[in-house]
Design a protein that fits this description.
CATH class: Mainly Beta
CATH architecture: Ribbon
Oligomer: single chain
CATH superfamily: Umud Fragment, subunit A
Radius of gyration: 18 Å
Structural class: mainly beta
Number of helices: 2
Length: 152
């Protein structure tokens, strides 16, 4: 059965609006210790938000921060805008990354691991948390942070 023009237009708007904006990944980036393994997330299932400044900076997704290890830079509940790094050829030591690992998403400073070239050292801003090594093979993807939404 052929659809009327109004139905086609409404369906097209619904479909196109579902894919506009930046997706908010429904898992939390742990600013603390690694979490349990999370199942995969489909971008089409994510809520999307249109924040022109973040879109202009190339943000691919938003993710909520959980924990206090990166306080005061990133607080529990903050939403960070992230741009995926397409090729992990090198790390900028001392920079903060969002690391998608087999243990969950982490927000950490990344430092060189002195004792092992196959690892990186994940360092927190909050000095109550000790740095820990993370095998490079455990990193599924890597993102830089290009923006922040903080609710007061």
């Amino acid at each position: 059965m052929l659809k009327g023009k109004e139905e086609r237009v409404a369906e097209a708007k619904k479909t196109s609006s579902r894919h506009k904006g930046i997706p908010l990944i429904p898992v939390e980036a742990i600013a603390g210790l690694p979490a349990d393994d999370n199942e995969g997330v489909y971008m089409e299932d994510c809520q999307r938000y249109s924040i022109p400044e973040f879109e202009a900076k190339g943000a691919n997704f938003l993710i909520r921060v959980s924990g206090d290890s990166m306080t005061p830079i990133y607080n529990n509940g903050d939403i960070i805008a992230c741009r995926k790094v397409t090729e992990i050829t090198f790390f900028q030591w001392g920079c903060i990354y969002v690391l998608d690992t087999c243990q969950g998403a982490l927000v950490k400073y990344v430092e060189e691991c002195d004792e092992d070239d196959d690892c990186i050292l994940c360092v927190s801003e909050n000095k109550r948390y000790k740095p820990f090594p993370l095998p490079k093979d455990d990193i599924r993807s890597l993102s830089t942070i290009v923006g922040l939404v903080r609710l007061l």
